[in-house]
Amino acid sequence: MGDFNGLDVHLGNLARLSSARTFSISAENRDGAKGGGARATEGTMSRQARDLGVGWKMSPCIPLPAGSTTTLAEIEGSGAITHIWMTVDKKVWRSLVLRAYWDGEDTPSIEVPLGDFFCSGWGEHAQVSSVPIAVNPSGGFNSYWQMPFRAGARITIENLQEVDVPELFYQIDFVRTEVPEDAAYFHAQFRRSNPVPYGEVHTLLDGVRGQGQYVGTYLAWGCNNTGWWGEGEVKFYLDGDDEFPTICTTGTEDYFGGAWGFIHPEGVYATFTTPYLGMPQAIQPDGFMKNQQRFGLYRWHLTDTIRFTSDLRVTVQALGWRHDGRFLQLQDDLASTSFWYQTLPHAPFPSLPSRDYLEVI
């Protein structure tokens, strides 16, 4: 794999030398230039650092003006993003949109509300301790997805609100290195069904064309009924599958690695976060005007990647129980983020929902 071995996550390769060079973009070094950090003479904390001078936390964050799109990173040449860290007020996690463009493409390969990209779709903090995504107290977002590019990369963030966001803290770490021919491009797409129409399924992903591998699902599930909600099957339609899928799971909690309704002890949802899968969040009714159960779930296909050669479609059923023991087709609120690698060009994404439709209420 040549210089690309510098991106390998396996512990056994950490000692291997590489000619890859590491850089970092932040509010303290907006273009990631070598030796370009901590040079600001003014910034968001100029007043606090006025007695300290250059090099003393003059510009650790940036404002996001209302309705604006801000470029966080613009990188030329070949390499890969290896780590992204961000934090911002949780009130805006659904109204900031993260986008990434590889090799000068016109449409983004990543287009996801910020919180959902980091497994935090409900605007409430929950610890996530997984391999590619870590969310730490209190709202420290970390991504370790490898994001290779050959001609360049651009990452932006859009503020959909009509008011300014005063502080976004961020750091984007990347390496300049050769990228092997068989390395695909990272993609992430958000979709929401609120509610899922009665008798229909929620589509996580459709219209994917090219060769690649599906590597992860995050699902923010909001219940509009009482009772259990996780009987539905997750289905993967691969390479020409039409009515019936090649991969079909046995139930929602099964796909996310749990069993028997995530119950432990009796009468309690047990949250959990592991390297590859988890349900780190269970928000339950607890008083006046709070009447919806909401859950956050993730499943990373890192050692069990789902590979396709020409096309891919992914769906999930919203399914519960009727009082007489029959299944009930639910009309719940499902917001999903799908993560995959594929060749370019990718098919255009569906239009992202409006700010009002994205909002968590």
Provide a compact summary of the structure.
The chain has 361 residues and is mainly β.
Detail the topology: elements first, then pairings.
Blueprint: E1 21-26, E2 62-64, E3 69-76, E4 79-87, E5 96-102, E6 110-113, H1 114-117, E7 128-129, E8 133-136, E9 140-143, E10 147-149, E11 152-159, E12 165-176, E13 185-193, E14 202-209, E15 212-222, E16 234-238, E17 247-248, H2 252-255, E18 272-273, E19 277-283, E20 294-300, E21 306-308, E22 311-316, E23 319-321, E24 327-329, E25 333-342, H3 355-358
Parallel strand pairs: 6-13
Antiparallel strand pairs: 1-12, 2-12, 3-11, 4-9, 4-10, 4-12, 5-6, 5-11, 7-8, 8-9, 13-25, 14-22, 15-20, 15-21, 15-25, 16-17, 16-22, 18-19, 19-20, 23-24
Q: What is the count of β-strands?
A: 25
Roughly how much helix do the residues carry, as a percent range? under 10%
Distance between the termini: 47 Å
Mean pLDDT, nearest integer?
93
> pLDDT below 50 for ≥5 consecutive residues: which ranges?
none
Instruction: Give the strand content.
Output: 35-45%
CATH superfamily of the largest domain: Protein of unknown function DUF2961
- CATH-defined topology of the largest domain: Jelly Rolls
The shape is: globular
The number of distinct structural domains comes to 2
Provide a count of the helices: 3
